[in-house]
## 1
Amino acid sequence: MEDYPLLNLFWTMLWLFLWVMWFFLLFKVVTDIFRDHGLGGWAKAGWLVLVLVLPYLGVLVYLIARGKSMSARDAKHAKEHEEAVRQYIQKTAGSGSNSVDDLSKLAELKDKGHITPEEFQRAKTKLLA
């Protein structure tokens, strides 16, 4: 360690961190280009060529020109994903009761006289439909 001082180690770690962050930003911009449905094919190709051929300038220009809409697209994507997960959970878990339980409750209400036979038939056809 004597031939590699602590300050050099710090600078190496800083440059490594900046390099990793750069790739993260580059991947974020490329995924945003493909996620944007408002851009046409030629516009996507142009942004992609700019970002890949002149990466530093291309990413900087993309962030300046389209940075605000990036966060809006991310928020929209997250909201759509959350809604899809919620719908899947509701569909998979069901409403918590099945039609057999509901039919038995209806029959019990009819037997106790709380509902008429006509109301029972309407509720049963609605439940089974």
## 2
Amino acid sequence: MANAKEKYPSLPGVKQSHAALQFEYNAHRFGFVLLLLIIAAALLGLFSGGYFSDATKTNAANSVQVEYQRFGRLLSPVELKITSPGQGETPLTLRIGGEYMARTQTDNIWPQPDEMRSEGGELVLVYQAAKARQDFTVWLYSTPQQPGKTVTTVTVNNQPGLSFWQFIYP
């Protein structure tokens, strides 16, 4: 009776490693499943825009609403949409603070504010009211400069603020 080693005759000059063959088998078996899981997570928005990433948050006083992405990538542009209900003819003062100034670079603000300054680690945008307005929306386009969790606060006209987090992948 032939033993198990003789079942598959070895080739001359070839030394087989059972551990390497087992590793290759496991890589084929589990690698495909892992690849499918990564693709599904990306499609659902776990790495940038998508179902798990897109978020909208409103503060308790309904004075500000923020639309943002929970997940982003380092050095890839992200959009932040801030909406405030009509304030009449009073100036609108928008403060963006938390870790925003330290961890991101603001590329574009639309519409352009009448006055813009940095105050105590916060970005302050002032819009003068030319006439009574309805909902007012400001878009900030920025680029994350540091990976990790970033907590940002948004305040409109010194009313209760709104905090939200974003996770930036390296």
## 3
Amino acid sequence: MSEQSASSPAPSVELSSDPSSPLPQEIARALKRDSAGLVAAIVQQHDTHEVLMLGWMDDEALHRTMTTGRVTFYSRSRQEYWRKGDTSGHAQFVKSVALDCDGDALLVRVDQVGAACHTGTRTCFDGRDFDVVTGNRD
């Protein structure tokens, strides 16, 4: 079930000094990647603010996401790129991308078509709540 993205146009800003990174320098420098070169990407519905899912991106997946208008992830299990919705029809159309204050997580705001989760639920968190003791502020 490989969802591959077509070639992406080059960004209109200066590229990273790292020739293997297609990202603009300021973004490539700001990212704090894990040992596999990946950054967590939290996907949120742009208008309702629902947290839809968590995926992983390397520099190329982020570049494709930023330059094509569709979200591309890097599959850790299959070790390949996949563009959300290419086989399922449940596409994610990019509205914005932001980097957190530590540089180790992305927030990708999207317009989600259909289910975000591979199980068919709207989000990857639907029906998966834990029983917890809730806190109250005084």
## 4
Amino acid sequence: MRIGELAEQTGASVRSLRYYEEQRLLTSTRSAGGQRHYAAEAVGRVALLQRLYAAGLSSSTIAELLPCVDSPSEDNSDAAFERMAQERDRLSDHITELIRTRDALDELMTINRQYRERPRSGLSACTVPSPGASRRVTLSGSAPRGSGSRR
């Protein structure tokens, strides 16, 4: 099948399919005119690649895992398992950092909400405590309007 047909069957863009091929994750043959042609099995391969990308894996990591798919063996399986465990740990660390970032944003939102709910004194700046410091940071701009509504 040609690249457009593969894109249509898999929902992947033609650009993505070319990228997969550049990264040596997907193979094709070329016609005399230079057009790419894919075997029917490419549909399943693209679906697998899409799942691996959706899981947050990089092209190089996927390339490390594919020998387990292409040439199953105990060694390939062990190597793939170890690599997946490393990726899982990396993702867990990233999730922990994202939770820290979300919590810091929640704290700033609470401070903002408190500011917005106090009686209006005609201030044109919002004063927010600077994390880990005794000084205050002033955010310029007009005072928020409304009664505590979120933006």
